[in-house]
Amino acid sequence: MSGREPHTALAAAIAQNRRNKRVTRAWLLAPALTIILAISILPLGITVVYSFLTPGTYGGVTWEFSTDSYVQFLFQRDIFDDTLVFNSAYVSIFLRSIGLALGATIGALILGFPTAYFIASKPREQRNIWLFLITLPFWTNLLIRTYAMLLIIRDEGIINIMLMKAGIISSPLTILYTDTAVFIGLIYSFLPFMVLPIYASLEKLDFSLVEAGYDLYANRLKVLFHVIVPLAKPGIVAGSILVFIPALGAYITPELLGGGKKLMIGNMIAMQFGASRNWPFGSAAALILMALVVVVLLLNALAARRGASNNG
Amino acid sequence: MADPTTATTASGKPRHRRRRVRDLRAMPGFTATAWITIVTLYLPILVLVAFSFNENRSVVLWTGFSLDWYAKALENDGIRNAAWVSVKVALFATVISTIVATMAALATTRTKKFAGQGLVFGIINQPLMIPEIVTAIATLSLFALVKKITGLTGIGYLMMAHAAFCIPFAYMPIRARLETMTLTLEQAAADLYAPPLKVFTLVTLPLLGPGIVAGAMLAFVVSLDDVIITLMIAGPGETTLPIYILGAIRRGITPEINAVSTILVAVSVLLVMLLFVVQRRMQR
Predict the structure, then answer these.
(1) Which residues contact A88 (CB under 8 A, 6 or more apart)?
(2) Does A125 lie at the interface with B, CB-CB under 8 angstroms?
(3) Which ipTM was obtained for this model?
(4) CA B269 → CA A136, B181, B276, distances in Å?
(5) A236 touches chain B (CB under 8 A)
(6) Do B172 and B263 lie in a common domain?
(7) Rounded-to-integer distance, Cα A169 and Cα A95, Å
(8) Inter-residue contact A226 to A239 (CB < 8 Å)
(9) Domain check: are B45 and B177 in the same one?
(10) Are residues B103 and B155 in the same domain?
(11) How many Å lie between the alpha carbon of B65 and the closest alpha carbon of chain A?
């Protein structure tokens, strides 16, 4: 039949078109992927290699295989008989960081959830203003925000001055350079990350469900915990992860508000590449931090999958 | 909204009922918490800004308005050099990251699912998912190695590192913009025998404009504000403004720092407000 020829020609043209599209796509993606692979992902590989090397005398590494960095994380070599003794110093820095990050996540949730709900219950025009106010701090310099926090929680900062003028306290509260300061600083730094995802899941909340709850004689608490919170769960989980992960690896907050004495993982890693110069150990610590982050993300993915299969 | 409860039992206590209906959405204490959030987020910055205009050297007592600290900060060579480095690095990072992010966004939107799509998204967003300190020391390790092998030094390393972590920030708004654009206009242009390049420059690019502007602004702000990666990899003479400020805070608090910090915050806030306006226009 005469119709067959054009058909194959058409098929060939479509195939050609598809091939062209694929080639174009590859060319368009190449620069971005090359830059990120070379400058963000390749270095992670190098970090893995470095973590198994021997520290150089003046920073850097010596190319000699060693697992010392990982051993050093848990143990200390006894100077006299070369036996390994458990050393809790680094483990306790990790536990401290996890504790502070968890605390900051809970604190951010306590402030963030009501805020997100409040914004979601506002008319559209007002919502945009509130959202803008919540987002704006995220785009201002974290270092400067932390420094500003330092200014107000100092012994002679505005908070102490106001409390003393009000006669609530007679001598200034020492907040700065304590765990409390780091905790406050972490909440302050990452609070917007909690509000925004919760808002996103509450934004489409059908308030008639809330009404239905009241109609069925539920009180406010019941409506909150049996209707609103379950609907906001994906946002709460996302927000908690978005606060927990950067809080866990925080550097600036403990550096400024903890006075460099109250260490967190981030400072400890940075120190290994600066003053104490043990790059392999710093690399190993960074990888252990990465592993923690991956565990959190995997747990989340697993929970999400289980949730999905339960619903379906 | 008609509430069945009110309708059936309104005869009892109408006033009480009406009030309950009106704030059905409200939860006790939530409004207060929202305000606490806003105060927490803004009070420290407002205090910082206020004291940058204080005439007294003290950062504690307010004595009067003055612009002295701004004058002092602008005369300070360290601050001026750092500001220049910051702008140079941020401009380079913005141009590179916006161009490659635009290309990547064109490749990943408005197509059917393609093999490796998830991987591509993962790679592009990778700088967002890893704690910054890890990226910082990893990049430092790579650059130390490259420097040792090639002997090349210079600010190029810092610029490339910034370009890399700016890509996902530039990519997000550009992709979002592309996803709202249908292919119909481009197809119409092609039907009218416009060659692909013309379709791109005369149809796609102008439509995509606001997205690209938004992406570039975010990239610029993110580069300008970076501390950790820059702290790790910047060599001597490559001090950016945030690194200068960090050093100054470590040496002791001065009103000069408040003035520079206020300027930096003002730049970010202005850019983000501009962005907000651009995006609002995009929605229309």
Answers:
(1) none
(2) no
(3) 0.86
(4) 7, 28, 10
(5) no
(6) yes
(7) 33
(8) no
(9) no
(10) yes
(11) 18
Q: Which residue of A has its CA nearest to B4?
A: A215
Angle in degrees, 0-180, between the axes of helices A179-203 and B30-52, rounded to the nearest 10: 120
- CATH for A89-277? 1.10.3720.10
- Within this chain, do residues B61 and B85 fall inside the same structural domain, yes or no? no
B228 and B273 both lie in a single domain = yes
Cβ atoms A189, A250 nearer than 8 A: yes
Q: In chain B, which residues have their Cβ closer than 8 Å to the Cβ of A28? A: 103-104, 106-107
Domain that holds residue B221: 69-283
Overall number of domains in chain B:
2
Q: What is d(CA A246, CA A212) in angstroms, rounded to the nearest whole number? A: 39
- Measured between CB atoms, which of A136, A149, A188 is closest to B269? A136
Which positions in chain B touch A251 (Cβ < 8 Å)?
132-133, 227-228
pLDDT, one tens digit for every residue, chain A (312 residues): 445 566 778 888 888 887 888 888 888 888 998 988 888 889 999 999 999 998 887 777 888 888 888 888 888 777 677 778 888 888 899 999 999 999 999 999 999 999 999 999 888 888 988 999 998 988 889 999 999 999 889 888 888 888 888 888 888 888 888 889 999 999 999 999 999 999 999 988 888 888 888 888 878 888 888 888 888 888 999 999 999 999 999 999 999 998 767 789 999 999 998 867 889 999 999 999 999 999 988 888 888 787 776 654
Is residue B12 one of the residues assigned to a domain? Answer: no
B9, B35, B66: which is the final residue of a domain? B66
DSSP structure class, residue A56: P
* Domain range summary for chain A, segments of one domain joined by +: 7-83, 89-277
Give the nearest partner residue to A152 out of B44, B140, B271, using CB atoms: B44
Q: Which residues of A touch B38 (CB under 8 A)?
A: 133-134
User: Do the Cβ atoms of A187 and B29 come within 8 Å?
Assistant: no
Looking at the structure, tell me whether residues B156 and B219 fall in a common domain: yes
| Cβ distance of A46 and B45 shorter than 8 Å | no
- Angstroms from B23 CA to nearest CA on chain A: 10
What residue type is assigned to position A135 of the chain? T
Q: Which of A21, A118, A136 sits opposite B272 (nearest CB)?
A: A136
